[in-house]
Amino acid sequence: MSTLRSRAALILSALALIIAIHYLIDRRLEPGRLELLGQRADLPRALLHAAEYGSARAAGDQPRFAPGEQHFDVADMPARLAAFTLGGLRGFFAIYLWSEAENQKNQRLHEDLIDKYYRIVDLQPDYPSVWDFHAWNMAWNVSVQWSTTERRYEWVRHGIDFLREGIRRNPRSVTLLETMGRIYKEKCAQAFNPADRAYFSDHCLADDGAPPLLLAYQYYDRARKVMDETGQNDAVYSRLVVSQQPCFALNEYAKLITTQALDQLAAAAQAQLAGRPADAEKLLAAGRQSLQHARRLWNTTVIEWNKEHERFAEDTNAVRFGDGAQLAATIMADPQWDTALQPAYLRDHTKDLAARIQSAQLFDLLVAPQQYQLPPPGARYGP
Predict the structure, then answer these.
(1) Are 83 and 93 a contacting pair, CB within 8 Å?
(2) 3-class DSSP string for 95-157
(3) What is the tens place of the pLDDT at every residue in 266-303?
(4) Mean pLDDT, to the nearest integer, of 129-133?
């Protein structure tokens, strides 16, 4: 009797495994990867699909079945069920997939690399370091293996989308939030290649609806808040470094908007000198609007650095950059800007306005990335 029961249990287990495999084979690949892969896995590799991407990117909040740190919703159940069916074999498949993914990355074989990354994290969804490692691989290590800006951005975007899914499943991970901020700031907004920097920034704005520096600030700020609420530390950076990052990102964003404002105002002066008053007036209006935006950002940046100094009294950067932000806010708030940026002043004192704008454009405190500079004696930095 016991033998019959054992055989029946074995048959039932085999049937459950066959059903799981059949489901995974017939299931369509996630659309973002289908564009890259263009095919399904063949039968000999069916088991490797046990961790196939199982999360729908639906807008809004999803039902949470399991309370706690990990966000588990209805769309995650097929992948979880398939991984559960593997039982103790899950660890062996994870090790195999890690090894295969690293070999393919090093050999620049990208055909099903994303597929493997998603299978790995569905086998190990509770480990933020796994999401962090592979998102970093895509955004940094794999993207630089391509020769065109467009293809490099595709892989940076794959890394962003991958990490966004990791944050959905682990919403209170300081490491994942910090890494997302770092990708937006260092890989997109501050890419070393000027062509990449312009292309990545434009496409981030189109894809995410905001400039990458602003997105970086938002994710860094979330990481800081989670760190304060939970007492959790980042896997790599100290609490001081994590706390500084929102301030640095906002500081750089204020400089970006200031640079845009000064460029628009300089273009207005050039248009006026070139005898195109209609164009000059439009550019002047755009420059005034950007200038108002820059003023608000500098004021917010000052507040951020002051709060950082309250949190960490030993943080010399909070003093150094905080003083710089305060000086920039004072310069931008000078009421003479409002007088000089009127259509009548542009018409009557065009050359003087152009010289003043050029002086401000040369002031590193306002425009140079992550640099602090006191004004030289007698320097003119505005109207």
Answers:
(1) no
(2) HHHHHHHHHHHHCCCCCCHHHHHHHHHHHCCCCHHHHHHHHHHHHHHHHHHCCCHHHHHHHHH
(3) 999 999 999 999 999 999 999 999 999 999 999 999 99
(4) 91
**Over 258-287, what HEC string results?**
HHHHHHHHHHHHHHHHCCCHHHHHHHHHHH
Q: For residue 42, what is the DSSP state?
A: P
In terms of Cβ atoms closer than 10 Å to its own Cβ (0-12, 13-18, 19+), residue 374 is: exposed
Q: How far is CA 16 from CA 11, 82, 363, in A?
A: 9, 10, 69
Q: Give CA–CA dist 124/184, Å, rounded.
A: 25
d(Cα 194, Cα 370) in Å, to the nearest integer?
A: 17
pLDDT at residue 194 tops 70 = yes
Domain coordinates of the chain in residue numbers?
A: 23-55+72-125, 127-237, 254-383
Judge residue 36's burial from the number of C-beta atoms within 10 Å of its C-beta, 0-12 exposed, 13-18 middle, 19 or more buried: middle
**Between residues 234 and 7, which one has the greater pLDDT?**
234
Which residues are CB-contacts of 341 (< 8 A; sequence separation ≥ 6)?
265, 284, 287, 288, 291, 383
Cα atoms found within 13 Å of the Cα of residue 85, Cβ hemisphere only: 24
pLDDT digits (tens, 9 = 90+) for 5-62: 777 777 777 666 655 554 444 443 343 333 343 333 333 333 333 333 333 233 333 3
pLDDT of residue 90: 63
Written as six digits, the tokens of 105 are 């990355």
* Six token digits for residue 20: 């799981």
Give the type of residue at 179. T
Half-sphere exposure of 110 (CA within 13 A, CB side): 17
